[in-house]
Amino acid sequence: MGEVRSSSFLRGYEVFQRLTGYRTIPCQDAFLRDRSRHKVWAGGRQIRKTTTAAIEALLATMGTAEKPAPLVWLVGGSYSVLDEMWNHIREWAAVPGMADLVERMTNKPMELDLKGAGRLRGKSADDPDLLRGPALDKLVIEEAEGLSDYAINRVFLPMFTVTRGGMIAISSPRRKRHWFYQWYLMGQDGEHPEVRSFTNSSYDNPDADVAHIDFMKSILTEAEFLSEYMGEFPEDEGQVFRRVKETVGVSQGLATCIPGKPYVIGVDWAKVHDFTVFVVGDVSARSAILVERFHKQDYNLQVSRLKDLATRFNNAHVLMDSTGIGDPILDMVRKAGIRAQGYTYTWRTKKQAIDALAVAIEHGELRIPDHPQLLRELEAYEQLESDSGNVKYGAPRGEGYYDDCVSALALTWWLMRYGADLSRDLDIRSVFDPPAGQRELQRSIFGG
């Protein structure tokens, strides 16, 4: 037992490897052997960040001569974020030699007490103010990008005031306007000796499927690939759509209907101060060809305009925003004889639709018309951080900014690409390999 609970973290790390049989890869080993007070790891997917943080937490709980009974917290944006890390700790705690140290362990709540040593607790930061109070010796944060600046600066870091505690923060890098990036820079600049930061790409895992990573590069935006696989903070991380002007392929004034061709229309209805937008898409050409934008019109007149437009483009299929006020309008649209489906925007479904559009534009899969307002909205559209620390999409805050054209275009593209009932919860990955049933539905809508 004494062999495991060593006065040296590194000695304990070596004994841990021998007892559990766990073998680290080089980037893990480099992170674990560095004994800086605060460590930040911005890394690509599947480089064992979570496993590494679990090892740090377990060994820290065992204590040292300086801190024989430490309090260690695992923290994530929700309990589900911590599941994988806790499962590793639970497995290791059951290994002969390690199990002798366990005094008490529960899964709900996530708690581990070691005999004559420390306490480990798993905590959800969905409401960080509920976690105020304790003096911590070690804070281990999973998916650090999910925690707000407020949670770190106002709730957690003050817990080190008398303990000289340390922080381990791991995450895929996504935003530069975030505390995680600030700490990453501190660990690189040489002016903060107690902070060390690391970065590794998914290619740094010797077990990685390099061909798969290369394939993902071909289907993700540059920013997504840098974040998810290269472990890099993307430039202009707030900008969602890139290479917008390169995708302009149709003159707004030259949109014509060709008999027999399939067309679709994405619709975003005006709420209070914004605009109603119709975007017509040519399915076979993979092109948005016409944008109609207006406001301050009675909904009966708007539905009539939509009916005329759908009829003009070969009885086009319509996908419309049915969130809130759009739900009763969907009934009006269908009663008018328009083939229409509703799409309810939630945080998740909006992200799926916008992500799909961003990929299509950046990879040149979709052509767009030279509509000035559409181009302005696409170039201004950005990722925003909500008060809770979550990422959301939309027009910049301020007078004169709109995103109605972007929303309508996203619906046009997704209906054009899927040809399916998007009120269902669809996996965005299926865009690239739609199942047979979905292809049948595409044929029923578009023919062919």
The largest sheet, given as strand count, sense and whether it forms a barrel, is: 8 strands, mixed
Helix count equals 14
Shape: elongated
Count of discrete domains: 2
Which class of the largest domain in CATH terms? Answer: Alpha Beta
What CATH calls the topology of the largest domain is Rossmann fold
Strand content: 15-25%
CA radius of gyration is 26 Å
CATH superfamily of the largest domain: P-loop containing nucleotide triphosphate hydrolases
User: Helices and strands: which structural class?
Assistant: alpha/beta
What do the pLDDT scores average to?
A: 84
- Which range best describes the helical content: under 10%, 10-25%, 25-40%, 40-55%, 55-70% or over 70%? 25-40%
> What are the segments in which pLDDT stays under 50 over at least 5 consecutive residues?
1-7, 420-448
CATH architecture of the largest domain: 3-Layer(aba) Sandwich
Task: Please give the alpha-carbon distance between the first and last residues.
Answer: 71 Å
List the helices and strands and how they pair.
Layout: H1 9-20, H2 26-33, E1 38-43, H3 49-62, E2 71-76, H4 83-93, E3 102-106, E4 111-114, E5 119-124, E6 138-141, H5 149-156, E7 166-171, H6 179-186, E8 195-200, H7 210-219, H8 222-230, E9 248-250, E10 263-268, E11 276-282, E12 287-294, H9 299-312, E13 317-321, H10 326-335, E14 340-343, H11 347-362, E15 368-369, H12 372-380, E16 382-385, E17 391-394, H13 404-418, H14 436-446
Parallel strand pairs: 1-7, 1-8, 2-5, 2-6, 6-7, 9-15, 10-13, 13-14
Antiparallel strand pairs: 3-4, 4-5, 10-11, 11-12, 16-17
